[in-house]
Amino acid sequence: MKKIIENNRLSLINEKNEEVGFATFPVFKDGVVIIDHTFVNSEYRGQNLAYHIVTAVLDYIRENNLKVVASCPYVIKFLDRNKEKYQDIIAVIDEEVTEQCKLF
């Protein structure tokens, strides 16, 4: 499957050129994006695709010298379980960030 990143959205595309999953990560503030949604079509669930989508987004964030905040429950758990690997790109959470994340 191929991954396409456009307009702060990563799409996972199958061999039939169909989108099977995606993640959105709009700009939160300068240099920080928020991963606010991940999705895998029901017929493709159970294949670890959400993991591949999220790691691709996090790699993109790192490669582009950005920081990340998560409001998507899957990504919150993912980052909590992988703190050491992604600690360099996790944005510091303060009250302003916490309140604004609730808007997403």
What characteristics describe this protein?
104 residues; alpha+beta; four-stranded antiparallel sheet; three-stranded mixed sheet
Tell me what you see in this structure:
The chain has four helices and seven strands. With about 100 residues, it is of the alpha+beta class. The chain has a four-stranded antiparallel sheet. Strands 4-5-7 form a three-stranded mixed sheet. It is globular, with a radius of gyration of 13 Å. The relative contact order is 0.17.
Present the secondary structure layout.
Blueprint: E1 2-6, E2 9-13, E3 19-24, E4 27-29, E5 32-35, E6 37-40, H1 49-63, E7 67-70, H2 73-81, H3 83-86, H4 95-101
Parallel strand pairs: 5-7
Antiparallel strand pairs: 1-2, 2-3, 3-6, 4-5
Question: Care to give the gist of this entry?
Answer:
With 104 residues, the protein is an alpha+beta fold. 34% of the residues lie in helices and 30% in strands. The chain contains four helices and seven strands, in the order ββββββαβααα.
